[in-house]
Design goal:
The complex is a heterodimer. By secondary structure, chain A is of the alpha+beta class. Helices cover 36% and strands 20% of the residues of chain A. Chain B has helices at 15-26, 31-37, 41-70, 80-114, 123-145, 170-198, 211-243, 256-290, 297-310, 326-338, 340-354, 363-385, 388-394, 398-428, 434-460, 477-505, 588-605, 609-612, 614-625; strands at 538-540, 553-555, 565-569, 576-581. In chain B, helix 3 (41-70) packs antiparallel against helix 4, helix 7 (211-243) packs parallel to helix 9 (297-310) and helix 15 packs antiparallel against helix 16. The chains are: A alpha+beta, B mainly alpha. Chains A and B meet through helix 1, helix 2, strand 7 and strand 9 of A and helix 4, helix 8, helix 10, helix 11 and helix 12 of B.
């Protein structure tokens, strides 16, 4: 396996100047004003400077003249400085007002609570329980009810990370020892790609998170399914695969709820419903049989430095293991 | 020199003999040992300049490696480990081993000449600061070549740089490099402040100090107030890593965010420590190009001083995403916007200075135009980033990479290059070619804009910083390719620059004493200046004495010619106060720097080296300061 397998997904990489989230839209609007006015300032300053530099090039040089030709220079400089002060005051005021408006959006009653825990180089997501079911743990794909506010509890147990989904909202740093609580709302359905924005070591480049916004009813169905334990595998191959999973090294880190593998959901991604995810390895690879097989055999090829080791499995066992994982819908 | 000799004054010597006698008293002893012992500010500044240029070349090669890796999606030429070391070394080298030292280098050469002094204050300390800087730079680059280069970014945030996640000795080398740079930069700052306060030519009262000297004075104060902050935090990091303290370890009651406050309390003034000298350089070039003193001199000085003050009040804008209280953040929005006011005032002073004048479009002036064509994009994106909501979207994305490079290459390097063309006749007695200079400017402006405008767009499109590769479907390939092309053009512009310098160095020294017809004192001496700078220390009555006729410069007489002597003047009005003997060349600063290096590198491997290593340092210092009968110390 030498070539990187392409991921073909429809998720948006985001453009924070044309976003879909309400908060991000508010910021974008403010940003466009800043950019527009700053562009005008740049043009005006350049024009003034080059006028000053070039307009008198044909004039007779008069090296002995100690007095310039700009009359009342201090008045003109005063005009320039006053204009600067006025524009900047406007910026400060709009920045402050935008920040206030953002704070008001975040005051809404949240639909659900999710703990987002950033690890070197994946995302652990702990959904809180609700009337219809108990809380559960999943990884790397943040399902959100579209049009509803969701409260996120951000933390990191290792190094500093930062959650950034440009289309939905601004960055929030995740600093060990400090919890930050934020509210997020995706107004429209869709898949929005986010990523870790704070340098966090070898695989900082491959620490994406998919925000999947779906209608609330669909979100409720999804979380009900996630809350359930993994189905017991049927068929010879998946059964053999389940055995490999708990007996080989997989089960020492990964959890599959309902299986007898011990695992820890804060050490490695929870795999209870891994087959239902769109991507593998934090947004790096499309989730399909070929990629899954390749990833299990040699994670270090795709994500050098990741904690998952190379697995030299018998081809038969590898096929069985993948077949088992494919049943974890 | 024997004690019994009666003192011989310049008034006793025929004018024809004065130069010869002064040279005899001031020159370094010949040979390698004499070279190592030199305390002449001009030779030390040349070493600084050459060393900083080497580090610029090394840092530049690293930036090209980064750009090649990112020129197309999915490149795997550099491993993540190599990439992390390379971008860390690029930032560290450019900030600590190029940008600050090169500004100091120009100042160490020019400031004493500009204020009409024969020396920089504390010449031996000056030699020491150079050697410490050189040895620190060599240390970290040797570590890098041994594959133990720092890899946690030039900002080294713990816990990633801490004992648990920063494996091996990598971040220790980074932290000790900071110690080297701190020592060196603090020493130079003290020298410049004292030079400006005590060694100005008689008559150079505060309102006659050239803008560049003001800029270096404020920069030096910024260094003195900013550096202690990073002294504290890098020492805490070393202690965490080497002796098991827990300053930044939240599990034991430390705080990872504490680092960011301390680092950026230094890190933000650092930007202005690099920018303010460039402002001074551009002012000097514009004054000479327009052949008049800067319009609004008091305002220009006040804006430089207030930039210095304000630069200490905006560090939190590097931390808007960390979840600090909103009201506090808004305060820092206001202060960050406020610093644009004096910066704007400075630009308006320049425009007013040029207005109505026939400005000579020499290469230095063209580099000031390059400053406008590049720095404005950096400064104005900076104004945008002062806004909390905008910053929370843009921070840690390529928008910041574009912004900071616009600021540094546009705001600092462009005037620096202009200053290099401007003062090259002073350094070497030769002109650089104007023809190649124009090529240099044009390529530089195109390169900088082509390299960094795409980065602003990439940040808007969600590309985060410090990633070693990115996927095809992110759609970042074309803009990254353009940025790589731009970086290549910048490299070409420096190639043109190098050719220009090499061609010029083969020419005879025929630039003349004052080739630009400038007004400030450094041009009152010959180009290049003699080792004693001025045969007679000048006395001035205006800010631009060379433009005010032959009788605008007086001469101080009555200094000894057989030993090195200078005039010390009073801080405010520059009234002569006393004659002062000048320290002689000596090997001790070099020895002390070697001992300091041994102590600091030793401490990376054995913390106890700080204890036993301080003994040779003490010996070096005692030797350096030991009073000798009949000799200047």
């Amino acid at each position: 396996m030498t070539a990187l397998l392409p991921l073909t997904d429809s998720s948006s990489y985001g453009n924070f100047l044309s976003p879909s989230g309400v908060s991000a839209q508010l910021v974008a609007q403010h940003s466009w004003w800043l950019i527009g006015i700053c562009a005008l300032i740049e043009i005006a300053t350049l024009t003034l400077f080059f006028l000053a530099l070039l307009r008198d090039q044909t004039k007779q040089a008069n090296p002995s003249a100690r007095v310039g030709y700009l009359r009342r220079p201090t008045v003109w400089i005063g005009v320039g400085v006053t204009t600067t002060v006025l524009i900047l005051s406007g910026f400060v005021a709009t920045s402050f007002l935008t920040d206030r408006a953002l704070a008001r959006i975040e005051g809404a009653e949240p639909y659900t609570h999710i703990e987002v825990i950033a690890h070197q180089w994946w995302w652990e997501l702990r959904y809180s329980g609700w009337e219809g079911g108990a809380g559960f743990v999943t990884a790397n794909e943040l399902h959100l009810p579209a049009g509803k506010s969701v409260s996120l509890q951000l933390s990191s147990p290792d190094v500093i990370h930062s959650l950034w989904i440009p289309e939905i909202d601004r960055k929030r740093d995740m600093i060990p020892g400090r919890e930050q609580s934020v509210q997020l709302m995706a107004p429209q359905t869709g898949i929005f790609r986010g990523r870790c924005a704070e340098f966090c070591g070898y695989q900082h480049a491959h620490m994406d998170i998919l925000a999947i916004a779906e209608p609330p009813e669909q979100f409720d169905r999804w979380r009900a399914a996630q809350a359930s334990a993994a189905p017991t595998p049927t068929g010879e191959l998946p059964l053999h695969g389940a055995q490999i999973f708990s007996q080989a090294v997989c089960g020492t880190c990964h959890v599959v709820r309902g299986s007898d593998a011990p695992g820890y959901s804060d050490t490695a991604p929870d795999l209870t419903h891994v087959a239902g995810r769109l991507t593998l390895a934090s947004g790096l690879l499309e989730n399909n049989v070929v990629n899954l097989t390749a990833w299990i055999s040699d994670p270090q090829h795709f994500k050098p430095g990741a904690k998952m080791t190379v697995n030299q499995l018998d081809p038969q066992d590898l096929r069985a293991l993948v077949a088992y994982l494919e049943t974890l819908q | 020199m024997k004690d019994a000799d009666p003192p011989l004054y310049d008034t006793d010597v025929p004018a024809g003999e004065l130069a010869g006698r002064l040279s005899a008293a001031w020159s370094d002893s010949p040979g390698f040992r004499g070279w190592l012992s030199s305390v002449d500010h001009k030779s030390i500044a040349r070493r600084y300049l050459i060393t900083a240029s080497v580090f610029l070349l090394l840092g530049g090669i690293l930036s090209l490696m980064i750009r090649v890796q990112l020129s197309a999606p999915n490149r795997r030429w550099l491993s993540p480990d190599a990439y992390n070391q390379i971008f860390t070394m690029h930032g560290t080298t450019m900030m600590f081993l190029f940008a600050v030292p090169v500004m100091e280098a120009v100042a160490v050469f020019i400031v004493p000449l500009m204020v009409g002094s024969r020396i920089i204050a504390f010449p031996r300390l000056n030699a020491f600061s150079y050697w410490v800087y050189l040895f620190g730079g060599i240390m970290v680059w040797v570590a890098f070549f041994l594959n133990i280069g720092p890899d946690a970014g030039w900002f080294s945030y713990p816990p990633l740089a801490g004992p648990e996640y920063g494996a091996g000795k990598r971040s220790d080398f980074w932290a000790q490099l900071i110690t080297f740079t701190e020592i060196s930069a603090l020493a130079v700052s003290v020298e410049i402040i004292v030079t400006v306060f005590k060694f100005r030519a008689p008559g150079m009262s505060l309102q006659r100090i050239p803008i560049f000297v003001w800029a270096m004075l404020v920069t030096s104060f910024c260094i003195i107030f900013a550096m202690p902050s990073i002294v504290v935090c890098s020492s805490m990091l070393i202690a965490d890593r080497l002796v098991g303290t827990h300053f930044f370890n939240p599990a034991e009651g430390g705080d990872a965010l504490l680092w960011q406050h301390l680092f950026w309390f230094f890190g933000h003034p650092e930007v202005y420590i690099i920018f303010l000298p460039a402002v001074g350089m551009a002012s000097t070039i514009i004054e000479t190009g327009a052949r008049r003193g800067i319009v609004g001199y008091p305002l220009a000085v006040i804006s430089i001083v207030s930039i210095g003050f304000l630069s200490f009040g905006l560090w939190v804008h590097h931390m808007f995403a960390t979840g600090l209280p909103r009201v506090g953040n808004s305060l820092f929005t206001a202060s960050s916007m406020a610093i644009a006011i004096p910066t704007g005032a400075q630009l308006f002073c320049w425009i007013a200075t040029c207005w109505g004048r026939r400005v000579r479009l020499t290469t230095p002036v063209l580099f000031v135009a390059a400053f406008f064509l590049t720095f404005l994009s950096g400064g104005l994106t900076g104004v945008m980033l002062a806004s909390v909501p905008f910053d929370q979207q843009a921070t840690d994305s390529y928008f910041i990479v574009g912004h900071i490079h616009y600021v540094l290459l546009g705001g600092a390097v462009a005037p620096l290059l202009g200053a290099f063309y401007y003062w090259f006749p002073k350094f070497s007695g030769r002109h650089l070619s104007e023809y190649w200079g124009r090529w240099h400017v044009v390529l530089y402006v195109i390169g900088v804009n082509l390299a960094f405008a795409p980065m602003l767009a990439l940040g808007v499109r969600g590309m985060t910083r410090r990633i070693y590769t990115y996927p095809d479907h992110a759609g970042w390939g074309a803009l990254n390719f353009a940025a790589t092309l731009g970086a290549g053009i910048i490299a070409m512009s420096f190639l043109v620059f190098t050719v220009n310098i090499l061609r010029s160095l083969r020419q005879p020294r025929n630039a003349g004493d004052n080739p630009w017809d400038a007004g400030t004192l450094e041009w009152a001496s010959s180009s290049p200046p003699p080792v004693y700078n001025f045969a007679y220390i000048p006395v001035i009555i205006s800010r631009t004495p060379l433009w005010d006729g032959a009788d605008a410069i007086g001469q101080v007489t009555g200094l000894q010619v057989q030993r090195k002597e200078v005039i010390v003047t009073r801080g405010l009005d520059a009234v002569p106060d006393l004659r002062d003997p000048v320290p002689t060349p000596t090997l001790w600063p070099f020895v002390a720097a070697l001992a300091t290096t041994a102590m600091l590198i030793g401490s990376i491997f054995k913390p106890s080296a700080l204890v036993w290593g301080s003994i040779p340092v003490a010996v070096g210092m005692i030797g350096w300061l030991y009073p000798r009968r009949g000799k200047n110390t």
